[in-house]
Structures are given as C-alpha cells and as structure tokens.
Amino acid sequence: MDKYYATGKRKTSVARVWVYPGDGGITVNKQSLDEYFGGLEEAKLKIYYPLNLAGLNGKIAVYATVKGGGIMAQSEALRHGISKALVEYDPNLRTTLKPLGLLSRDARVKERKKYGKKKARKSFQWSKR
C-alpha cells in the first residue's frame, strides 16, 4: 500500500499528513475528525475542500499529526498538507489545486515586539511638551 507524505503549515501550526487509498476516513492526532475539531463545521469544511475538488472524498484516507497554533490555523495547515499530499498522489491534480491557492503557504505570522514599543508597531503616546 502506497502512502504519500506532505507537510502543511500556517502561522505556527505544522501538520504532517499521509494520504493513502482507503475508506475516506480522516484521523488527526489519533482521533477522528469529529472528535478533534468538535462542532467547528467551518474547520471541517476547510479540510474537506481539497478532497472534494479532486473528487476523492470517499476514496482516500488521511492520517495527520498537528501541533502548534490554534484550531483554525491547524485546520488550514491540515488543508495545505492534504493538498500537497494529493499532488504527490496524483500530479495531474496540481492544475486543479494551484490556481485556488491551496498549494501555497499562507506566510502571515505575528510580527515580533520591538524594544521601546508597546507592541510590534504601536508606540507610547508622544507629547511635544
């Protein structure tokens, strides 16, 4: 049985994803998708999006480990990883997934705080006199 691996990232979340022919189940950190993401339907829809586009929703099983960040960032990292793994599985899917931005990493990360500032860019109130 062939397994295809890819890494998906978003903010500080990292998802390690393996896809293989199977029943269509998605396992995240040794839990089912419903157990891990609970009632967050938006997060689940993001994860199923690349599978639905490829038409492989019931044919591909996904196993993933996710760490770091929040729930939504983890779901987006998982979506990124699944998309990249699907391209490993079938290179013809690249033409479907790439124009929708599913293969590019969303690189927006929180900017670090600078010294002498209140936050990354916000300064203390300036007074002329």
Short description:
With 129 residues, the protein is α+β, with helices and mostly antiparallel strands. Helix content is 33%, strand content 22%.
Question: Helix and strand layout, with pairings?
Answer:
Blueprint: E1 4-10, E2 13-21, E3 26-28, E4 31-32, H1 33-37, H2 41-54, E5 60-67, H3 71-89, H4 94-97
Parallel strand pairs: 3-5
Antiparallel strand pairs: 1-2, 2-5, 3-4
> Biggest sheet, strands in spatial order?
1-2-5-3-4
Biggest pleated sheet? 5 strands, mixed
CATH topology title: Ribosomal Protein S5, domain 2
CATH level 1 name:
Alpha Beta
- Poorly predicted regions are none
Helix content: 25-40%
SSE pattern: EEEEHHEHH
Number of separate domains = 1
* Rg on CA atoms, Å: 18 Å
Q: Helices and strands: which structural class?
A: alpha+beta
Strand portion = 15-25%
Number of strands: 5
CATH architecture: 2-Layer Sandwich
Q: Tell me the overall shape.
A: elongated
End-to-end separation in angstroms reads: 74 Å
Instruction: Provide the residue-averaged pLDDT.
Output: 92
General description of the model:
By secondary structure, the protein is of the alpha+beta class. It has one domain (4-100): Ribosomal Protein S5, domain 2 (2-Layer Sandwich). It is built from four helices and five strands; from the N terminus they run E-E-E-E-H-H-E-H-H. It has helices spanning 33-37, 41-54, 71-89, 94-97, and strands at residues 4-10, 13-21, 26-28, 31-32, 60-67. The protein has a five-stranded mixed beta sheet with strand order 1-2-5-3-4. Strand 1 (4-10) and strand 2 (13-21) form a beta hairpin. Helix 2 (41-54) runs parallel beside helix 3 (71-89). The longest helix has 19 residues, at 71-89. 30% of the residues are buried.
